[in-house]
């Protein structure tokens, strides 16, 4: 088989000259196409629709984006649009055997640029993976993002269709920088989304609920812990998009507090307004403690439904259940000692913890002495403090409790 890019580009250009020209894109059609591409950057699930529009614009049988080639345990991911054609075989394709594998980034090539037609037909990749889907003419380019990642963009036609010519190359060249920007935008947005999810999960694991309000006090979003708290309907609930307290007096204080904070958003004050309130619970459990903090807008967040305030709350009656193994490793305790320490950190007396663990009181006392020795504390209150202030709670897999 001829090596990649070994065939004369002059010969390829001569063959391309004989192919029928693809109609030019109108400004409206191009704008619609680019709109779909940039929408896909924000919503990855819409890449198939964007590729479908690209496929139609190039009069191609398939348009594909190789997101992840797949190596070892890292599964392959290829997003394709096929129009009226059948779906491409979803089995793991050996992309390393493709003549388009390892292309120089940003260089648009077709089959004719890479190898002769005879070699293409004789290749195992064409025979096993392309011919069954009537993939004969291929235009390919690899797109390198700013983080060093490489995405493969492929357009194909059947054997009876015209090969890709100069017009399609020019159109692909026009589209290429927009695909690169969209992929870079996706990487940036996805990274921010992942970091925000991590922060939200960490807050939930620390039993901190967070509710974001807009400039009218309407709830924009809740983290896992906050959602679990309001779903209890035990002193707090979300009604008609507003956070409300069960008791009228508490609700008046809560609404006044939220309004005071929102009225001061963006004003030139020395410190951002932060207010707190206690909310009683009909169940009789320990009251909710709420802190409301303003979210200062920036130059780009003017308008309606923007984040303007955050409500933070904790379930003081919640029980901490950190992973036993993690707690053992952190404090160098035995399994039995760790279980006892967790019970004590959750507010049980030594007698109650012994009963909960189904052990004798003297055994519990022996465990407690060992715990004190290993952690360096002398009182149960100190043990509670070091447990609740340690990183051990961050190892909890389910922040919703």
What sort of overall outline do the alpha carbons produce when their principal axes are compared?
elongated
Give the terminus-to-terminus CA distance: 60 Å
Computed over alpha carbons, the radius of gyration is 31 Å
Q: What is the topology, as strand order, of the major beta sheet?
A: 2-1-5-4-3
Any idea of the CATH topology of the largest domain?
A: Beta-Lactamase
Task: Tell me the number of helical segments per DSSP (H or I, 4 or more residues long).
Answer: 14
Structural class: alpha+beta
Strand percentage, roughly? 15-25%
Total beta-strand segments: 12
Mean pLDDT: 82
Q: Class of the largest domain in CATH?
A: Alpha Beta
* Structural domains: how many: 3
- Unreliable spans are 1-20
Question: What order do the helices and strands follow?
Answer: HHHEEEHHHEEHEEHEEHEEEHHHHH
* Name given to the CATH homologous superfamily of the largest domain: Transcription factor LuxR-like, autoinducer-binding domain
Helix content estimate: 40-55%
